[in-house]
Amino acid sequence: MPLSHLEHFLIQTDDIERTCEWYVRVLGFRVGPSPEFGFPVKWLYLGAQDVIHVCEGGAGVPEARKRYLGQQSQDVRGSGVIDHVAFRCTGLEETIARYRAALGSCAP
Q1: Please, which of 1, 57, 83, 87 could form a disulfide with 95 given CB 3.0 to 4.6 Å?
Q2: Nearest to 15 by CA among 55, 52, 72, 45
């Protein structure tokens, strides 16, 4: 199950445009192609790689977003802003088995 790299992370915000503008202006990202998920999302790129995905968060998110991503938090500021982090790895079955074994060892 070797991890090869960080795939992306998703930020939920109450202002997609303003959040993206900050990452572009201050850190040098660029807005690039984003798949159509049925809810607003923008992908920010460094070079050819999408690194940050930005979507609407908070209490009033569209049902399509809830179905696709789930929603654990309604926060859009502070520590609730990062919705998920995705890594690229190889060996899906081994990864799932290792994850399940780790969950079992964490049980009280």
Answers
A1: 1
A2: 55
Domain spans, the chain:
3-106
Of 85, 88, 100, whose CA–CA distance to 1 is shortest? 88
Contacts of 54 (CB under 8 A, 6+ apart): 10, 11, 12, 13, 16, 19, 20, 23, 41, 42, 43, 44
For 16-27, write each residue's pLDDT tens digit: 898 898 888 888
- Which CATH class for the 3-106 domain? alpha beta
The amino acid occupying position 9 is: F
Phi and psi at 38, nearest 5°, equal 90, 5
Q: Which amino acid is at 90?
A: T
- The answer, as to whether pTM is greater than 0.70, is no
